[in-house]
Write a structure and sequence with these properties.
The structure is a single chain. This protein is of the alpha/beta class. The chain folds into three domains: 17-136, Beta-Lactamase, CATH 3.30.450; 148-308, Reverse transcriptase/Diguanylate cyclase domain (Alpha-Beta Plaits); 319-571, EAL domain (TIM Barrel, Alpha-Beta Barrel). The chain contains 22 helices and 21 strands. The strands form four sheets. It has an eight-stranded mixed β-barrel, surrounded by four helices. A five-stranded antiparallel sheet has the order 2-1-5-4-3, sandwiched between helices. A five-stranded mixed sheet has the order 7-8-6-11-12, sandwiched between helices. Bound molecules: ligand C2E and calcium ion (2 copies). Residues 354, 413, 445, 475 line the site of one calcium ion. One calcium ion is lined by residues 475-476, 496, 532.
């Protein structure tokens, strides 16, 4: 193929003007990257020029040699090439085709130009041959990139959306169904952070290969981004339903992935499912819905499949809205504090007050902390919010102490996220010093969620707080995974019995048994008990009778402004 260029193609002598002209043309041709075939219709002569021998091991000298040229190209290109080599037969002056050689490694472009005389009779023909191999490869790469994700070899997001769009059009026409699954590797960030992104990529690749096994005419699979994949099943039934596929994925990932560093890694996945036409009627909406469901499935414990329903979408949209407004509120510190008094059950004397955050959004709607605190915990803004609450309430408490010198306790709700921060204790002690507040007058309310992460570490931190004299209260007791047995090992001062117990304590005998057990147990362990959400006199009387120490609730006092609390302090 790469035969040396032959000297004999050059003219022997470079004398007169025509010889010089010919020599010039030849040199130009020979320094070009292309090969040329010249044909004279009158003399029926052929000349090959330029890089001819680079592409073909033969010359074209006579009519029968044309066929040699046709023989070099791969089967499907033989016929098209024939048309290009003889455009004059179809009354054309130009023709062009790209062919792959039989070797399958080289792409050549053949382009023919026929020159005619005044009468329109063909006189000369030039066929130019150009190597297109490099461009073809680039083309293929670009085509690949347009449809596939280079890491996993699965379809990319754009192409998947197009294919899903076709699914949707079909399903509309034939009134059929589609299931869209968004599959996400649980705790992937831990792999990326702990083992590096190269290992992370490997995992993404290997899990992608697992999902690829499900691809069929009815099932399309794509890599959406990072550790998120999407599958669409057309008319799911039999072996190809989302449930069956999910079970098979689970079965497959029970075995660990072996990564190149030799690490073995077992993963779980969360899956969100949205169906056409139930959830949405366009490809993008279906993917969005499935993504929302997947996130929901993550927030409710991971390693599960969850299905789309309308209330879920509403809740999600509401949360997104709140999250956007919350950013603004944090920036402008658009919050205020209410304080709910707590009273000793026996004496009805004021024990202290719990600081409760209030947020009125820019449209003057009050948004409940029960709604926005979990969102703030997710996006991290609980840290500035929590710091603001601590500073404001401690400052207010200092003002009250200066004015009234009463033995009261300020309770502050602390989110698990705040509590986990390294600098938390330091920030708090700094504030107490700044406002000259005695640590023993501050009570931190924490929920059981802080205990889930690492019981021993949390218990140790509680001990540190208490060594500084700060009181610790376990909030919402009875709602979480609360077990009475771990109470023994917890360094706390106060137990807050959740409102849900108080709600039914008068009507439900079982609740009474539990409530009394909690109170007795707490007394044995030396904890103070606070009942939350006491709304009625009857509830108060009952709690008095069973020995609950402190009462908090609408019955004796609603959450109120600092100004209203002052009235209470004046009278105390
Ligand atoms: P929580 O800590 O259990 O606070 C008690 C909630 O019960 C308050 O709701 C209070 O207004 C309400 N409540 C008190 N007594 C009664 C009653 O007799 N009947 C009824 N129906 N409700 C009563 P709120 O203020 O809406 O707070 C909701 C939750 O938001 C709080 O529950 C707490 O978990 C969280 N939160 C409030 N402020 C803060 C804060 O500053 N920081 C953090 N991290 N969380 C906060
Ligand atoms: Ca509380
Ligand atoms: Ca509570």
């Amino acid at each position: 193929m790469m035969a040396p260029e032959r000297e004999r193609d050059l003219p022997e002598k470079a004398g007169d003007l025509t010889d010089q002209g010919e020599r010039m043309y030849r040199l130009i041709c020979d320094t070009s990257e292309n090969a040329f075939l010249y044909y004279s219709f009158q003399s029926r002569t052929y000349v090959t020029l330029g890089r001819w021998r680079r592409f073909f091991p033969f010359d074209i000298c006579r009519e029968e040699d044309w066929v040699k040229l046709e023989m070099t190209v791969d089967e499907p290109y033989v016929e098209p090439l024939r048309h290009v080599l003889f455009p004059e037969r179809e009354g054309k002056k130009n023709a062009r085709v790209e062919c792959m050689l039989r070797s399958k490694k080289i792409w050549l472009e053949f382009s023919a130009t026929v020159f005619c005389d005044e009468k329109g009779e063909p006189v000369d023909k030039v066929i130019r041959v150009t190597d297109r191999t490099r461009y073809r490869q680039q083309d293929e790469e670009l085509t690949y990139m347009a449809f596939y994700d280079s890491l996993t070899g699965l379809y990319n997001r754009n192409y998947f959306v197009r294919l899903l769009g076709e699914f949707v059009r079909n399903a509309k026409e034939h009134q059929e169904r589609i299931s869209v699954l968004v599959v996400d590797i649980d705790d992937f960030h831990k792999v990326n952070d702990g083992l590096g992104i190269i290992v992370g990529d490997e995992l993404v690749q290997q899990f992608g290969a697992v999902l690829k096994e499900f691809a069929s005419e009815k099932v399309i699979v794509c890599h959406l981004n990072s550790d998120v994949y999407c599958m669409a099943i057309y008319e799911p039934y039999g072996e190809e339903t989302e449930e069956v596929i999910y079970q098979k994925i689970k079965e497959r990932i029970r075995h660990p992935f072996t990564l190149s560093g030799g690490q073995e890694l077992t993963i779980t996945v969360s899956v969100g499912v949205a169906q056409y036409p139930h959830a949405a009627s366009s490809a993008l909406e279906l993917i969005n819905c499935a993504e929302i469901v997947m996130m929901k499935s993550k927030s409710s414990g991971k390693n599960a499949i969850q299905y789309f329903d309308a209330p879920m979408l509403r809740e999600f949209l509401q949360n997104v809205q709140i999250e956007n407004k919350l950013k603004e509120a944090v920036f402008h510190q658009n919050f205020s504090l209410h304080y709910q008094p707590q009273f000793y059950t026996v004496s009805k004397r004021l024990r202290g007050m719990e600081a409760l955050i209030r947020w009125q959004d820019r449209d003057h709607h009050m948004i409940s902390p029960a709604l926005f605190i979990p969102i703030a915990e997710k996006n991290g803004s609980i840290i500035p919010i929590g710091n603001w609450v601590m500073e404001q309430s401690i400052k207010q408490y200092h003002i009250w102490k200066e004015k009234y010198a009463l033995p009261i306790i300020l309770s502050i709700n602390i989110s698990a996220i705040q509590y986990m921060k390294e600098e938390f204790v330091e920030v708090l002690l700094g504030l107490l010093e700044k406002y000259r507040v005695n640590p023993s007058e501050i009570e931190l309310e924490i929920t059981e969620s802080v205990l889930i992460e690492d019981f021993e570490k949390v218990a140790e931190k509680l001990r540190v707080l208490r060594e500084h004299g700060i009181r610790v209260s376990l909030d919402d007791f009875g709602t979480g995974f609360s077990s009475l047995s771990y109470l023994k090992r917890l360094p706390i001062d106060t137990l807050k019995i959740d409102k849900s117990f108080i709600d039914t304590v008068l009507t439900d005998a079982a609740t009474r048994v539990i409530t009394e057990t909690i109170i007795n147990m707490a007394r044995t362990l030396g904890f103070e008990t606070v009942a939350e959400g006491v709304e009625q006199e009857q509830q108060y009387k009952y709690l008095y009778a069973v020995g609950c120490n402190v009462i908090q609730g609408y019955y004796l006092g609603r959450p109120q402004t600092a100004q209203q609390i002052e009235e209470l302090l004046k009278r105390a």
